[in-house]
Amino acid sequence: MSELDLIQIRRELHQIPEPGFEELKTQAYLLWQLSSMQVPHMEVETWQTGIFVRFQGYDANKTIAWRTDMDGLPMNENTNYEFASLHEGYMHACGHDIHMTIALGLCEQFAQAQPKDHVLVLFQPAEEGPGGAEPMMKAEPFQRWYPDEIYALHIAPELSEGTVATRPGLLFANTSELFIDFVGQAGHAAYPHQANDMVVTASHFVTQLQSIVSRNVDPLDSAVVTIGLIQGGTKQNIIAGEARIEGTIRTMSAEAMRKVKERIQQMLQGAEASFTCRTKVDWGATYEQVYNNHELAEDFLSFSEQSEDVHSYACREAMTGEDFGYFLKDIPGLMFWLGADSPYGLHDARLTPVEEAIHNGVHHTAAYLKHRMNT
Ligand SMILES: CC(=O)N[C@@H](CCC[C@H](N)C(=O)O)C(=O)O
Question: Where is the active site (predicted)?
């Protein structure tokens, strides 16, 4: 019997989105909720802005981990929620408020009924960047409580509530962020021959990038190069001496990622020669692909198929990224999509997942983790 009001918790978390490794209010809020569950078989430890919650199993053979992400995105919310973000310029637009609430719901269940195996619940910062998974894995509590299996979910706005989906093997892409600075010579708008215009250079370069996917990546493989931000210049009648583009690269294979980066570097050399400028590239955070353990993904799908509470299916892979891939590189486990029925997608300022997804998420996940304890 749940004593937590999970809908209220989700709404309160929704109001305080914070950037990666700055989730201080979120951490304090989660610690406060966790403090109401304290039982002798439960331990709580903080790591940076993240949290480890460990439940001692009563007859343990292994440790099963559950991971949620915590950070919000830098965007202005446009949902008309009464409980919209109170943090100007930030929004939980990737469902991490729902993910954290589900993780709290699981903690409550394992606090109320001691699990058979040990359970480690990870509240992980900075999934959207620069990536909290890799450093959290190196943290002392993680090494001390090292899990044998690890699981996570992500809301899927396009799937109806009550649906779960995953697949054996590759689920999410390899990712790399992309930051490029162009530096030339600023000047008077009326004297272009005396300047090196970085607005023209950056615009040209963004267009040139489009040929990488169509001409350089094996058509039987797959890749995405998206520029999400472009900025340069200071005034309409001054030629810009500096410009910057920011984006992300997504690939199905490590080989395609290598190829895309190689082409970007070659194109930058070309841009320097063509537009008389200097360029600097920074690859930012790179995320390991999310590669589900085959046996566990099959097990999850067949368990879900037998459940009367969810509709399940084996989905296609997606070009989204997730630093949960770092956990799966070393530890058997899987990630699955949880239907959340929003007319607007992830990273959309109007994302409105249905809150019933929370109860589905807690219920199905708890049932599956208990099934893993008997396997
Ligand atoms: C599920 C999801 O939307 N994840 C993010 C992960 C971002 C990775 C990194 N900051 C990048 O932009 O490459 C996504 O955008 O897929």
Answer: 69, 128 (proton acceptor)
